[in-house]
Design brief:
With 106 residues, this protein is an all-alpha fold. It is 66% helix and 0% strand. The chain is built from four helices and no strands. The structure holds stearoyl-coenzyme A. Residues 16, 19-20, 22-28, 30, 34-35, 38-39, 42-43, 88, 91-92, 95 line the site of stearoyl-coenzyme A (ST9).
């Protein structure tokens, strides 16, 4: 069980590093729902359940983020890490499936 947990953390950290090192804009434009999904799983994995208060009227983006995080309820840090890694595999596969194969960038 402990070895499994170390694996979860390593894969999660690797996935987090990939996302933090992507260029801000590129050929792939993640939809808001995808960004929110990564965001809430990251917060749940790193900070645990959402206990901060919901942002007010003037911060609609903050409210979307808060809502997504809160919806995860009591999900464990480990499950959130695993789900984050799964999400990345899913998105990476979608990117592979939809990128034009004959695109020349040079
Ligand atoms: C492209 C290349 O086109 C070709 C395509 C390759 C495709 C590979 C497929 C792999 C999956 C890609 C999925 C992308 C989805 C993006 C999700 C973004 C969340 N994860 O300090 P702040 C929190 S690439 C989740 O202000 P930073 C942090 O705790 C073109 N959340 O910003 C904070 O929370 P709070 C597309 C994270 O550190 C909040 O985010 N490129 C992570 O300057 C803001 O943090 C992209 O989409 C994390 N790893 O930036 C770029 N780290 O507000 C994606 C921190 O509560 N990356 N947080 O305090 C980024 O946008 C940024 O690196 C960042 C962090 C927002 C994740």
């Amino acid at each position: 069980v402990m070895a499994e947990s170390v694996d979860h953390q390593k894969r999660f950290q690797a996935a987090v590093d990939v996302i933090q090192n992507l260029p801000k804009s590129g050929a792939y434009r993640p939809p808001y729902e995808v960004m929110l999904r990564f965001y809430c799983l990251y917060k749940q994995a790193v900070c645990g359940p959402c206990t901060v208060s919901r942002p007010g009227f003037w911060d609609p983006v903050g409210r979307y983020k808060w809502d997504a995080w809160s919806r995860l309820g009591e999900m464990s840090s480990e499950s959130a890490m695993a789900a984050y890694v799964d999400e990345m595999k899913k998105v990476a596969q979608e990117v592979i499936d939809t990128m034009p194969i004959n695109e020349k960038t040079a």
